[in-house]
From TrEMBL, chains A, B:
It holds the Pfam family Pribosyltran. Residues 4-73 form the Bacterial purine repressor N-terminal domain. GO terms for molecular function: DNA binding. Residues 107-254 form the Phosphoribosyltransferase domain. GO terms for biological process: negative regulation of DNA-templated transcription; negative regulation of purine nucleobase metabolic process. Belongs to the purine/pyrimidine phosphoribosyltransferase family. PurR subfamily. This is Pur operon repressor.
Length: 273, 273
């Protein structure tokens, strides 16, 4: 069956959105829709225009016989600002205050719309970085790590506090938690990370950065390299930051338990580029 | 600025795909694109046709003043068969065998393309069920729970083995693990689940079903109700299944450690409907 342009545009949009950063050849589309490559090229030009105009992302065209097209997720500045402001508003809600000045963020990390937008923003920050895999630590960072991974189209590996029989052999390291100064253990399945892999570390919350630093040290054990660090929320409180090059969406400035006030501002998302 | 039909089709496709099961009014699209409602209706008819023809899902139209359109993710039978066969092939790989006859599945559960397809299949199974929230248990089920949640557009709550200070007050229960018969604890943050919520339980692996049964018991503590159970992999091995109504994609028939053979077949995905 022949495809009309309108059908092609809808199906190609879906196809590309499902495969960020994957090179799709013109030949593939041309065969899928039984249409001339020149028509496919015209379709892609319209999709590219619309994606850019609407802040969906960009289409990168690679010319030549082995060429094709790639969807690169990007968030435009206006949408990013709006969403980060919304996050600030949500996180500053005094109902989040827990005994000890901790913040309850579980609802945000479980909300698929929020998680997906956080993932798209973090992925946008690293859209032009060469990344093979995303690393996070169980449990709370997993949702945003996976959302970021979906937009970068790379796998996720999860560092754990203890080893499980279903992980096979593991590598474990001890590290010093930045804020509590306690010695803790982290464990990663041996076969989950390849030698030489370029790793983006993603986590929900960073205070002094001890846990993130632990993950960076773990990379050495695997001869893997650090490609970047991205967190949803960083805390200003930290006396001494163990990590300095990272992207954060929101920054926690102050938690006043007595007055029940949480002060948050935009993170370094816009300034770190 | 005015939008041409081709641009509208691309942007509407993106907009709808990002918001499964959400009612979007014709007025919203009409204002967004400064186009007559009659044109928007025509656009939606083309999108609906293409979504159905291409196995992307369906568009449900709700007529009337408060009406609009909803994208319902569905996987057609042919695509589902193909993907489940692929899963069987991947899981039957003898390299997955770990000491004790356990299977290494971490790579599959960390692969964004596989995780997303699993999520779409499980969501398709429950596309017409009333679901408020998805529940899973840390850690391995989290990725597919979130992928399913993204397609059903509902939040995820994560049951843990131990309570964390960042979860606030928790409810904990003891349960008997089905296969090891050991008494274990599971914990859920009190404020993460509302009274009366209809809950879909999602997990990566079910043997006797002790963990899933534990989650079902936990629902009682919250006066929540069970809307369904969905697992990626079930095991035939179980002497006595503690749970009987569930959907599985793949069924593990036998693990022969000596011969290094794993036997898997299609789960009850097609027969359970």
């Amino acid at each position: 069956m022949k495809f009309r342009r309108s059908e092609r545009l809808i199906d190609m949009t879906h196809y590309l959105l499902e495969r960020p950063k994957e090179l799709v050849s013109l030949t593939f589309f041309s065969e899928k829709y039984e249409s001339a490559k020149s028509s496919i090229s015209e379709d892609l030009a319209i999709i590219k225009d619309t994606f850019e105009k609407q802040g969906i992302g960009s289409l990168q065209t690679i010319p030549g016989a082995s060429g094709g097209v790639k969807y690169i997720p990007r968030t435009n500045k206006e949408d990013a600002k709006k969403f980060i402001n919304e996050l600030c508003r949500l996180i500053a809600d005094s109902d989040r205050l827990l005994p000890g000045g901790y913040l309850y963020l579980t609802d945000l990390l479980g909300n698929p719309q929020i998680v997906s937008k956080v993932g798209k923003l973090l992925a946008s920050s690293f859209a032009d970085t060469d990344i093979d895999v995303i690393m996070t630590v169980a449990t709370k960072g997993i949702s945003i790590a996976h959302a970021t991974a979906a937009y970068l189209n790379v796998p996720v590996v999860i560092v754990r506090r203890d080893s499980k029989v279903t992980e096979g052999s593991t590598v474990s390291i001890n590290y010093v938690s930045g804020s509590s100064k306690r010695i803790q253990t982290m464990v990663l399945s041996k076969r989950s990370l390849n030698e030489g892999a370029k790793v983006l570390i993603v986590d929900d919350f960073m205070k002094a950065g001890g846990t993130v630093k632990g993950m960076v040290n773990l990379l050495d054990e695997f001869n893997a390299s650090l490609a970047g660090i991205a967190v949803l929320l960083e805390s200003e409180e930290a006396e001494e930051r163990l990590v300095d090059d990272y992207v954060s969406l929101v920054k926690l400035m102050d938690v006043d338990v007595k007055e029940k006030k949480i002060k948050v501002i935009e993170g370094n998302y816009f300034t770190n580029k």
